[in-house]
Structure prediction request, 227 residues.
Amino acid sequence: MANATMAAAIAGAMIAAGPPFALAAPAADELATGKMLVDACAGCHGTDGNSAGPAMPSIAAMDPLVFVDTMTAFAHDDTYSTVMGRVARGYTQREYLLMGEYLHGIAYKPAAQAPDQTLVQKGAKLHERYCENCHEEGGKPIVEDEDYYILAGQWTPYLKYAMSDFREHRRHLPRKMGRKLDDMLAAEGAGSLNALYAFYAAYADAERDNDNDNDNDNDNDNDNESE
Ligand code: HEC
Ligand code: HEC
Prediction:
């Protein structure tokens, strides 16, 4: 009896803290299963988690623990979603782990956007001052690290939705992030958010410039289908 209670308490604590076995590397056949599971997400999140945008976030290279936490929160309606609650309820915790491990290994392709260049520099300074403490290296996926969220190269419309979800209390806003955000908006005005978005969107250009020896000629012959 006492033992059962203790076991339950330990199990509860492990779930709360994030179980240590979450990081155990899956075997090769399990990674294949991870890929198969993630293939079902391609309609919205793009092939291998690199979204064609604009409102669907890229999920390639996501931190696996953040991924599992996010899916769990969607499934339990602990965080706001339009469609992901329903999607997430279709999978087990084990399947979240497999998908998360698989996505973690996928190369992230920053979304090609066209930010207002005059805002990019301003956004870089704002990021450094108000956000970099927690979103390191400009919010890039730092795959060898833990607990990162992807901001750099993420689709701007998605980031805007995420930000309104935080600010309108549909999504839990970490207290210190809320404080930084308030400080920034008070000191720099509402336009500061647009400068940040421009900075995050500019990451695709920065990557391309770093990548001189790439072979894709990226000829942009799409005819701007705005309506
Ligand atoms: C019908 C479109 C659709 C499908 C299919 C879909 N998603 Fe999503 N996903 C979204 C949208 C939209 C959001 C933003 C949250 C919301 O409004 O539901 C999102 C958000 C997410 C996020 C949060 C990303 C972040 O940066 O916080 C994760 C993780 C995710 N989806 C994983 C998946 C996985 C894994 C699958 C496949 C099993 C999947 N999604 C299938 C539309 C979809
Ligand atoms: C004290 C640490 C901290 C600071 C400072 C901070 N953040 Fe965050 N941020 C977090 C955490 C933690 C999360 C994950 C929240 C959750 O659990 O959903 C997050 C999530 C986000 C997300 C959602 C990402 C996604 O994938 O959906 C955005 C967007 C974001 N932060 C933007 C910012 C911006 C812009 C700033 C600067 C004004 C900032 N943050 C400052 C800790 C911080």
Summary: Residues 2-17 form the longest helix (16 residues). The radius of gyration is 19 Å. The domain at 28-104 is CATH 1.10.760.10 (Cytochrome Bc1 Complex; Chain D, domain 2).
